[in-house]
Amino acid sequence: MAERVALFVDYQNAYMRARDAFHNPREDPHWMGQIDPVALGNYIIDSKSAGDRVLHQVRMHRGMPNPQYDARGYRAARRQVAAWERSPLVTVKTRPFRYPRNYPESRPQEKGIDVQIALDFVMMAVRDECDVGVLMSNDTDLRPALEEAISLGAVVVEVATWQPREGRPRQHLRLPQRRAAIQPYCHWIGLDAYTRISDDTDYAS
Question: What dotted CATH number matches 3-61+111-197?
Answer without folding.
Answer: 3.40.50.1010
